[in-house]
Design goal:
By secondary structure, this protein is mainly alpha-helical. The chain has 2 domains: about 80 residues, no CATH class; about 80 residues, no CATH class. About 60% of the residues lie in helices and about 0% in strands. It has 7 helices and no strands. α1 packs antiparallel against α2, α1 packs parallel to α3 and α4 crosses α5. The protein is elongated. It starts with 5 loop residues before the first helix and ends in an 8-residue tail after the last helix.
Length: about 190
């Protein structure tokens, strides 16, 4: 089909089905073992698919197909929150503290002077007795993201959602850098 190896199409469809299962179950937030097993299944399919496609030396999938599939996977899971991490809530809290004149390197979420910042997602903030452990660049990003997220929505849950944006932009930026590097070295872009 359009020069795309059948194994790649089958693998992409199976991975998307796994991600749709996770998405339909709301991220499997109540069933972490099922989430982990589904992710292991999807990763196994990915590894087998890459092996099968790589084995077919002359038939590589077009780069735009690879990028399209990668974007489809990301769009499927973009709206989900992870039951395995509370980092996004912590990023928001640290950005919120900075927005309100505090320093996340000297303040903790559990400190009494920040009771006024406790809202509907505060219970999700992890390690309330620990100061910030992220580097200064990330703290600046958190501050900027909080301002952007607060401008976009007054709802704390929707604000947390927007803290995925830096990772998504980095992902796309890295894809662009890899593509440019492959082209500048006259390597096949199918290596993406």
């Amino acid at each position: 089909m359009f020069g795309i190896p059948a194994g790649f199409i089958i693998g992409a469809v199976l991975i998307e089905l796994a991600l749709l299962r996770i998405s339909a179950a709301g991220g499997l937030t109540r069933d972490v073992p099922a989430l982990i097993l589904t992710l292991i299944w999807a990763q196994t399919i990915y590894i087998v698919t890459v092996y099968l496609v790589w084995r077919e030396k002359g038939r590589k999938p077009p780069v735009l197909f690879i990028i399209g599939v990668a974007l489809a996977f990301r769009c499927t899971v973009w709206p989900l929150t992870s039951p395995l991490s509370t980092d996004l809530y912590r990023y928001r809290w640290e950005g919120q503290v900075q927005h309100n004149g505090g320093n996340p390197y000297s303040e903790r979420p559990g400190d009494p002077e920040w009771i006024g910042l406790r809202d509907s997602v505060w219970s999700e903030v992890g390690q309330k007795d620990v100061r910030a452990g992220y580097g200064p660049a990330w703290e600046l990003i958190s501050a900027g993201m909080y301002r952007l997220a607060a401008w976009m929505s007054p709802d704390p849950r929707q604000q947390v959602f927007w803290f995925k944006l830096p990772a998504a932009l980095s992902d796309l930026g890295l894809l662009g850098v890899l593509w440019a590097t492959l082209r500048s070295r006259d390597l096949p872009t199918e290596l993406l």
